[in-house]
Amino acid sequence: MKTRQIPTWAVLFLLHAQSRMRAFLSITVLILLFSGCTEIYGVPQADPDGTPPDIGAIYYPHYHREYFGLDSPYRISWLSFPVVDDRTNTGGQDHWNELGYMFSEHMLFAPNSQLNSIQWSYDGQNPTMEYYALTNTWLNSAERAFQPKRYKVQFATGIHPAPVVVNGFKADPNTTPVSWVVATEVNGQMRPFENWIGYFVPHTFRAGDALSRNLPGSTSEKYLDYVHTIKTQTWSTSRISEEAGSPWIVDPNSYTLSEGEMIALWLLPRAPEEMLWNTGIPSTPPIVRPRATAFEYEEKLDYKPVFLEFDPEDMPAEVGLYVNGVCKGAAVVDTTTVDVALYMDDAKDGGELQIMFYYEGKGKKAAKGWKVYNPESLVFEDTGLRVEQIRKYAYLSFMSKEGDSPVPLVTSLKPNYPNPFNPETNISFILAQDLKAKLDIYNARGQKVRSLCNTELSKGKHTLSWNGRDDHGRQVASGIYFSRLATPSGSFASKMMLMK
After folding, report:
1. Please, which residues have CB within 8 angstroms of residue 60's CB and are 6 or more apart in sequence?
2. Domain identity same for 214 and 188
3. Do 163 and 244 have their domain in common?
4. Alpha helices by DSSP H, 366-438
5. Residues 333/317, Cβ–Cβ less than 8 Å
């Protein structure tokens, strides 16, 4: 278009304005004359997204994103929203990123609507948005979606959900922190908390690298150092034990994270209150896990990870997990250690876990001879496994023998927990092999006050409790005490404090 010239009357109007109101109206006229122009003095004008220039001091890049739709492979989706409209305010709609607004089409005709529920678990809270028939309303529908949060969205059975279309904005992953917590209070007790975190980085990275940004002010500590378990909708991994530096059962860099995905994290003690995604690394093609086809099972909103370590001389094409004769999860076996999602109906489900192998051209057969890793003792045990015994994960091996450990064990005495304590504390120690072990408690003057153990013990980790009493059952005074472990491999001591 031609350059728009300012009329002479408009200039004279501004110069001869006699009041602030007239000056304000005059400036408004000038802005209106210029708004929408695509060139000024022959120079093309546009915002960075190619649209005509907006009136205002701040430019926000605009993005278009569709979530779900006919190509969505799951009735249940674990996802985050990297594009949300958290800035628009028009037509009486204050928050265009409210879940109830974004999913309004899916919520129609409740209770027989497309949407079943939306759950999130973030910053110590884990609410649900679902239809409440007694009041004919959707609970928590005003909850606002932000990029750091992630969600589990469940649609009705047998439908292809309509897409959620968003024209909005992205958060900068370099400056937008993600809140997380180690534990939260439940009925007066602190319990570990599962943080559901959105991945809103516009690049695909290996999962371990994505979590390996250095903590502020540190050149060695990384956020990944404080993570114990990682779960996504299609893969999971965990550390051998809930201790800093403990090795991973499956390397997190065996998997990738792409924009819009999410992870669930269990943290180790003393984790920082928030984290930032690592962005200063080269991107990589996404790793997509193939789906098992030899077994039929129903996916649920959540699952328990089961890690299987195979004998390289006997690796099936697929593996299935059964409980009471029903398949509850399966996976393609493409490496010697595979994670399988075990989908249970509810927390009260019980039964012995059974494993089935599938071989190409040979069919299925029941697997035998596996050992169960006990994270409390740090060794594999020759025992069966009931699904109600599984806590964060289960780790089974077709390679290990009873008493084997997945990590080298060193005889040592661990710090007691809690410390300071009143009136009871736990004392743990590790034996690198079957040994005679003697664990005693001494006061600050070197006098023995209690003998907790003096016997032959098996290889692995052992934990004993001390209730603050001496060998005669008398309560000892507040003060400094020492635990002392004596073995043929050496002696070890640790300081404790009893406070009343």
Report:
1. 87, 169
2. yes
3. no
4. none
5. yes
Integer Cα distance of 357 and 311 in angstroms:
12
Going by C-alpha positions, the residue among 165, 161, 108, 103 that lies closest to residue 129 is 103
In DSSP notation, 223-291 reads GGGGEEEEE-SS-EEEBSSSSTTPPBSS-GGGSEE-TT-EEEEEE-TT--SEE----SS---PPP-PPP
The CB-side HSE value for 55 (13 A sphere, CA atoms) comes to: 9
> DSSP letters along 106-162, please?
GGTTTTSSSEEEEEE-BTTB--EEEEETTTTEETTTTPBP-TTBEEEEEEPTT--PP
Over range 337-354, report the average pLDDT.
Answer: 85
- For 368, the token pair is 């035998």
How far apart CA 222 and CA 280 sit, in angstroms, is 14
36: left (phi over 0), alpha (psi -120 to 50) or beta: left
What pTM was estimated for this model as a whole?
Answer: 0.81
One-letter amino acid at 464 equals L
| 373 CA to centre of own chain | 23
User: In the prediction, which pLDDT does 136 show?
Assistant: 93
Are 71 and 158 in the same domain? yes
Q: Nearest 5°: CA angle at 471, between 467 and 473?
A: 60
Number of Cβ within 10 Å of residue 240's Cβ equals 16
Give pLDDT tens digits for 228-280: 999 999 999 999 988 888 999 999 999 999 999 999 999 999 999 999 999 98
pLDDT in tens, 127-151: 999 999 999 999 999 999 999 999 9
370 and 441, same domain (yes or no): no
In the 8-state DSSP scheme, what is residue 103?
Answer: T
Q: Last residue of a domain, which of 168, 202, 230?
A: 168
The answer on 67 and 52 residing in a single domain is no
User: Side chain identity at 418, as an amino acid letter?
Assistant: P
- How large is the average pLDDT for residues 44-69? 62
Peptide bond into 423 cis (omega under 30): yes
Residues spanned by the domain of 485? 412-498
- Looking at the structure of the chain, the number of domains it has is 5
- Pick the closest to residue 304 from 288, 334, 328, 326 (CA basis): 328
Q: What is the DSSP string of 288-357?
A: -PPPP-SS-----S--EEEEEE--TTS--SEEEEEETTEEEEEEE--SSEEEEEE--SSTT---BEEEEE
Give dist(CA 451, CA 80) in Å, integer: 54
